[in-house]
Amino acid sequence: MKRNYSDKMLIALLFSLLLFSCKEKTGTATADSMHGHDKATANTCPMHPEIVRDHPGKCPICGMDLVPMSHSNELHVDSSILPLLKPVNEQVVSGISTISPDSGRQAFSVPVQGIVTYDIRHQESIASRVAGRIEKMYIRYNYQPVRKGQLIMEIYSPDLAAAQRELIYISSSDDNALLLQRAKQRLNLLGMQTAQINQVIKTGKPLYRVPVYSSVDGYIVEKKVAANASPSSTAMPPSPAAAADGMGAMGGGAAASNTTAAQQAINPTPVLIREGQYVGAGETVFTIYKSNSLIAAFSFAPSIAATIKRGQQLTYHTDANPGDIKTGSIGLIEPTQKNGENFTVARVYLSGTDLKPGQLLTANMQVIKDGTYWLPQNAVLQLGTKAVVFKKEKGVFIPRQVQAGIKINDMIEIKDSIGDWQIAKNASFLVDSESFIRLTSNYSK
Questions:
Q1: Could you state, in order of their start, the residue ranges of all structural domains in the chain?
Q2: How far is it, in rounded angstroms, from Cα 195 to Cα 199?
Q3: pTM of the model
Q4: Rounded distance, CA 319 to CA 275, Å?
Q5: Given a cut of 50, is residue 236 above it in pLDDT?
Q6: CB count in 10 Å sphere of residue 293
Q7: DSSP state of 353
Q8: Which CATH superfamily is domain 109-121+232-368 in?
Q9: Which of 11, 69, 294, 422 could form a disulfide with 44 if both were Cys (CB 3.0 to 4.6 A apart)?
């Protein structure tokens, strides 16, 4: 009995030891497995579950902290939509309607702004033939209109006064016709007119103020202003919107700039020549631009200027009277720069016209384009100097950079070969966030 009891106690002890050993191994295995799982825990972005990293960090898309992803939250993505899980600056999923580019020859009528200015090829110089002092000035401001025979100024010259006294002495003391003729000729060469010489002989008194008259009808300017004058200096650049669009159309903002340009063309600055100022013999004092020879100067943006040529006909009208249609041909094409803008001035020479300097003009320019494609402006997204369209490929829209040309009548020229493209009708609707502004390699064709 005693032995059986000992055997039973021994068996119970062995069973207890065996059970304790199994529990310890099980607990150790469980701890080890959990510790290994922690080491293998993946991290993901709450907003972009496609971002999975094996270490903590930040999301490369939105910058949020990555959080641990448990096995129950593991991302299971259908392989058929994996190509769609890309940033919005690489492709966009949308049901927006698409359009095909227009091609073939396109003809447009483009309004181009212009202004009436002076033809500096036809001018007369007013110079003093004797050295003297300006006693009286009748010209008050530059570009003042004058008539032929109009009094401009009066000059006192000691040499001229001495020559007149000699004429008076010869005519009164001697009947020598040859000496009298030579005295008259000398005064003519000094700038006195025949009527003035006869008046001196008749009255026996010299004219201490010799008048100077205009020889032609026109617009008078002092010599320093005339030296800096040119038709391109009075022409205005296209308006900012027109320059960006490559066209010369004028909008509401252009009207203000045109008014400023008109004021510059007829600049009413006072003349700097003053009474009492001395002038030298042969010195040019004024220049007169003839009023029967004017220029209509039209400003073209560079992209439009490439389509014009000398001799091309233009129809134009004044902004004040759109119903009075006039025609003219381009006589000169002059590339120029003003206020930091490059543009081209086309001159139409006017002769015998009723137009006045400073009047604003609008011409209709016919533009014909061959071999290019055209899209509505809404289909092209402008990013500074870059132009982007959304091309539909395999059910998604992919941004593609294109080379844009001129803009005419809400259409924009595309110089790339996009004839077989399906393009989103409105590109602005597909810009999801600022990340689209970060240009990537996907923009290249």
A1: 2-81, 98-105+372-443, 109-121+232-368, 126-231
A2: 6
A3: 0.56
A4: 40
A5: yes
A6: 18
A7: -
A8: Efflux pump adaptor protein, beta barrel domain (2.40.30.170)
A9: 69
